[in-house]
Specification:
globular, alpha/beta, 2 domains, 13 strands, single chain, Arc Repressor Mutant, subunit A, Rossmann fold
Length: about 260
């Protein structure tokens, strides 16, 4: 059992922010609504702290002394591919840098200056998906001749759970799960943005488009699936009626990722 993947009763957040005043404001605000927050003022301290405890979400400033947010995220992902990572970035951060962050395994950006209410909403929206208050947890789908496992973030042949044929990131897992759980239903783009990103703006829309392109590649394993873009409306996953699409769930009392 991996200690860092167990579910905490009260979500624990690791905040890496070198601006001490801002960090303390964010820490107190998130603690006021029930989160446990550990604040570190440089990347090295944050990396050391990450290795001591399990965390449900990471908020990482990009520009920090000793180890920047991108370097820290890379090290985190070398040890844990599941914990959600959000970068706290300046508005002037270049699109190319944002894409580099997504390639490192980031799940999103929160652009400074941000309101504390916006931060709360985005954190709540993401943890609602990763820590759903239900008796069962949806951990995968059997999709035709393949199994999409959201916890291991791998695609396996349906009858072989040892040799995977593809991998995906935490954010791709969210999107795959959202679409596969709603076959043949039109999903509006603003719904996707609010449900999975916690906000509906240009930056989030661009990042979502990047991840949509990535999950299309995963879906190519099953050619009969068709993720259709409906102009000015949203998207729909077209699934034939005779196609095997089956949920895989487990009781929430057994939430340790293998």
């Amino acid at each position: 059992m991996n200690m860092q993947t167990q579910v905490n009763k009260n979500p624990r957040i690791l905040l890496a922010e070198d601006d001490k005043a801002l960090g303390e404001i964010v820490k107190r605000n998130l603690e006021s609504i029930g989160y446990q927050v550990e604040h570190c003022v440089d990347g090295e301290d944050a990396w050391a702290e990450f290795q001591k405890k399990r965390y449900d979400l990471l908020l990482l400033d990009i520009v920090m002394p000793k180890k920047n947010g991108f370097q820290l995220a890379k090290e985190v992902r070398s040890k844990n591919t599941l914990v959600p990572i959000f970068f706290l970035s300046a508005e002037k951060t270049m699109d190319a840098d944002r894409l580099d962050g997504f390639r490192l395994g980031a799940d999103g950006y929160i652009v400074k200056p941000f309101s504390l209410l916006e931060l709360q909403r985005r954190v709540k929206a993401f943890l609602k998906w990763t820590r759903p208050p239900k008796s069962e947890l949806l951990i995968g789908h059997v999709v035709g001749e393949h199994t999409f496992n959201y916890r291991k973030m791998k695609v396996y042949p349906k009858d072989n759970q040892t040799a995977y044929v593809a991998t995906f990131s935490p954010t791709e897992a969210k999107l795959l799960r959202y679409f596969l759980n709603r076959p043949n239903i039109i999903i509006k783009k603003d719904e996707l943005l609010m449900k999975l990103w916690g906000r509906d703006d240009v930056t989030s829309s661009r990042s979502m488009d990047v991840f949509i392109g990535k999950i299309r590649k995963q879906m190519k394993l099953e050619p009969r699936l068709n993720l259709e873009t409906i102009f000015n409306v949203g998207m729909r996953l077209n699934v034939p009626k005779d196609f095997i699409l089956q949920k895989i769930t487990i009781p929430l009392s057994n939430t340790a990722i293998q």
